[in-house]
Fold:
Amino acid sequence: MEWSKLFALTLGTALAVGCQSDRPKPAPVPVAISVPEPAEQGTVVGDDRTAMEAAVDAGPSTATSSEASAGGPVLNPNAPDSYVVKRGDTLWGIAKVFLRDPWFWPEIWQVNPQVHNPHLIYPGDTLRLVYIEGRPTIMLQRGDFARVLPRVRSQPLAGSVTAIPYETVAAFMSRPSVLTPEQIKGAPYVLATRDLHVVMSDGDTLYARGFTTPVALGTHYNVVRVGDALRDPDDNRIVGYDGVFTGAGHVTRGGDPVTLIMTESARETEAGDKLFAGGIDVPLDFIPSAPKNKTSGRIMSVSNGVTVIGQYEVVVINRGVIDGLMPGNVLAIYQSGQVVADNESKGFLNSDSHLFTKKVTLPDERSGTFMVFKTFEHLSYGLVMEATNVIRVGDRVENP
Structure:
């Protein structure tokens, strides 16, 4: 009896196991896995500094021209993986954030086919540093303001980023301190002043001629005297003239001569002084780049007459369009090496004579970086972007 119960129990267990193995296995229940949102790649510049301020704080590049040209663009050691463009940024400052040498910017800028004009960068845009086939590349991601929204904008869009500080250039160009022969030849001139006044003051009247087209009422003009000739230090040829600002005024009556009322007077105004329209437009949509041709020249003049030139000073060099320069070209500034006495034999036989002492010229040393923003045939205006040492008129400029 005991044996029959044991047999029945064993047989029932076997049948149960066999039936279980023949059943189809249920599909596995999917497990919900929490996948975090992809974090923004890299480190974003999160402070309130503009790119130019960050570039100034980082200091000027210490790379030599041979180091810079040997391997092409070199990333700034502290370059972030992304940067949000701020109001007040310049293309030079942004390039300096990512690169050791900002003039290599065109080599890492990635044209976005979805943007009609890829050279326009606006506050709010994000620039991302990525690598394509091992090469560093800057990609543009438009900010929120660039999206098409079905509503009317109540505020104007922020202006695009310029290559260099516009205020500095505009202030200089509105009162030209260097005149080219072409500018002088085509400029209208002062015919006379009312009551033959020499020293003008606000509200005084002057008369001018030489306008090639009818003049609109209210047009603003600067009065500039043609000063001393500027000669190319290399061959002594005249390439321009000093421009001395004497005053400013606006047109109150057309005809021949045109009548102007003075709104500003800095010094005496004389018959023959030239008139130049105020607010000269200087396109600043260029990008930093090295000159295509080998360029070597000198600083001829500085805008405000200082003897020691610093950062953001406007200077004039003796090279222009005929030499292959164009706006955006970057040049290195070199301080001429001093001539010193070779005192190798000083103290020899107690001789203090310097009659036969040899003179040795020390090597030129790099003292700054210069960017061209307006070119003429034989000269160019530019802005000193970096100054690591004293810069003076006569210093040499050449390819970076």
Remarks:
- The chain is about 15% helix and 30% strand.
- The CA atoms of residues 2 and 257 lie 139 Å apart.
- Residues 175-277 form a domain with the Thrombin, subunit H fold (CATH 2.40.10).
